[in-house]
Amino acid sequence: MQAPNALSLYCENCGEYTLHRVIKGKIKDRNGRTLEVVARCTVCDSTYTGIIKAPPSREVPLVISDWENSHRTKIDLPENEVIRVGDELLTDEDTILVTAIELRGKRVQSAKVSNIETIWAKLFNSVLVPVSVNRGARTVADTIEAVPEEEFYIGDTIQVKNKNCVIHQIMDSNGRMLRKGGIMAKNIKRVYARVIRTHTSY
Q1: Structural domain of residue 23, as residue ranges?
Q2: Cα–Cα distance between 136 and 141 in angstroms, integer?
C-alpha cells in the first residue's frame, strides 16, 4: 500500500483547503488511514508537514489524452470526494484536467468517486494562451505556451513572433475584459497586446 500522490489539505497561507502534491508520504498503520506526509500546496507552494487521517480511497479507471495520443491507467482518489468536469487532478508525474466523467454508461458533469466508472482527462502541464497582437492597421494571431498557474499581467512584456509586445487587455474564460491586474494562464481566453516600437537615432 502506498501513500496518495495528492491530498486536499488546509493551507494556512491560502486560508482554505487546496490541492497538495505529496512530496514524502509514510503510512503509519496497517489499514493505511494514518499518514505522515510532507506536501506542497499547488496554489502558493507553501509546505505542509504533519500526520493526518486519510479517508478511504479507491482506484478509478482513468483515460489520459495527450493531443492525438491517449492511454489508460488508474488514479487513487478519496471515495467520498466529488469530482467535476474542469477539476485539476495530480498523477505521479503530471497535472491533468478532467474533461468527462462516466457514470452508469453516461457522461455526467460531476459524481462521487465511489460511483464513477471512468474519468477522462487531458494533460495539463501546460496550456496554449491565444494572443492577438496589434501591429498598426492589422492584427496578428498567435499562441504562447505557459504553465497553467503562470500569471499574465496588464503591462507585461511578452515575445510574439520574435517581436516584443506589451499586454494592454486580457479576456478571461468568462468573457470579462481585464484592463488592470493579472490572471493565471489557465483562466485566459485571449491576451491582447501591442508591438513595442523601437526608435533608432543616427
Answers
A1: 6-53
A2: 14
